[in-house]
Amino acid sequence: MTGEAGTYDVIVVGGGVNGTGIAMDAAGRGLKVLLCEMNDLASATSSRSSKLIHGGLRYLEHYEFRLVRQALAEREALLANAPHIMWPLRFRLPHQPHLRPAWMIRAGLFLYDHLAKRERLPGSRSVTFTSDDPLKPGITRGFEYSDGWVDDARLVVLTARKAEDLGATILTRTRCVRAERGSDTWQVTLQDTCTGDSRVVHTRALVNAAGPWVSSLFGSTMDQQPPRMIRMVKGSHIVVPRLNRDSEAYILQNEDERIVFVIPYEDHFSLVGTTDVDYEGNPAEATISDEETDYLMAIVNHYFRHQLTPEDVVWSYSGVRPLMDDEEGSAQKASRDYSFEVDAPDGKTPLLSVFGGKLTTFRKLSEAATDRLCQFFPSAGGHWTRTAVLPGGDFDDHPQLQAALQKRYPWLPELLVSRLVRCYGTDSYRLLGASESLDDLGQHFLGTLYQREVQYLVRHEWAVTAEDILWRRTKQGLYATRRDVETLDRWLQSQQELTGLRHATPG
Length: 507
Description:
Blueprint (H helix, E strand, L loop, with lengths): L3 E10 L3 H12 L4 E4 L15 E2 L11 H17 L4 E9 L7 H13 L10 E4 L12 E10 L1 H14 L3 E3 L2 E8 L4 E7 L5 E11 L7 H7 L7 E12 L7 E5 L5 E7 L3 E5 L3 E2 L11 H14 L11 E10 L13 E6 L7 E6 L5 H13 L23 H11 L5 H11 L2 H6 L11 E3 L2 E2 H10 L5 H8 L8 H18 L8
Parallel strand pairs: 1-2, 1-10, 2-7, 4-12, 10-18
Antiparallel strand pairs: 3-6, 4-6, 5-6, 8-9, 9-10, 11-14, 11-15, 11-16, 12-13, 13-14, 17-18, 19-20
């Protein structure tokens, strides 16, 4: 990566859900796009969410009706466009004396059902809990409603793949170290974080979609003050052995009005979160505190028969959400809405910066941001992403695809078939290719992870390290020992040395 080459219409800085969404939308409108990400795709906030596609039932309490309506509409579109990594989820809300009256909750759920058109999901209802439920015996009444679940990291990766299919250049482990505005283009210096090599490229528009780094990027690369600051709020989660009875999730409201979800996770676990804590420091270094762990366990233990202890925590993670800073109110009440700032003084080449946002509305945010960019590119195309199916999502029904895959590869273990469908959808055929036996999948690393899948992830999904593969691409890290991780990392390093590549370019 040395020398000077290339002029783009749009360079996007940031490989999270908003950055990849804007890159995909802009590339689909015919613009020449480059996206750079200093680490792995979704390596920060976008892989550390509660993994929900939801309207935000609790946002109704803060009168954010427009945000909820928009999120509910987006929920339907996303479920249709990526059925392999997203699916409907029923939530149960146990009713407790400290909550609002039952009639008021029913009214709120009615509003939630009808704020936007609902095509795929059933409506809300009252429920009675029995001894078969995992809740404590004294909890007998509650409510049930629909939302959706998403593999957040895979959403980002597949959005980047869609952008690349449309002609975008995706550079991971590539830092934007300098951006200087000229009259016609930005001059952008990119540095490979693995080799240290640099190159200079030019772009007619620059997008700052750096998430929790959006404000600091102005000073570090452009020597200018940010137009606004963000409020960094840390959300932490724990993963514990399965608490959910079947496929239902639970939404628990504490007396301090905070919400904690208990969500079925992978095959054997439950995901519990989240917290809302104001955060200062490097977002990449955020970790869960003992106080947060105790807080999450205390809420679960208030509702569930099985009492959690710290020894039950299989894994934990923390993400820093870049929320719009209203400079008042508690962290949990900070708005999840988004805004843009477009800076184009005296007709010079524009800079668009993204502030705030939430996972569910990333497509709408990306569409609105690209609309603003296209004011500078009058020949660009129009809206197209609402019905844009992500790679592997061209099917209608999980069980049918799983049955078809099992028929084509009858020797595949059932657990592996199920996971391949959830991760890759119809791209499972591309991954497995002409394999005729388990031996054809190559070295078995751990769980249901084999060499052939690892090679696919390196070649087609920008994976470089064991962490990329075990946590952001497959979640097989839940079953990995330290020795397993070291074995996989050694294998990856040997392949890089063999090919002379520090990281692969998908193709």
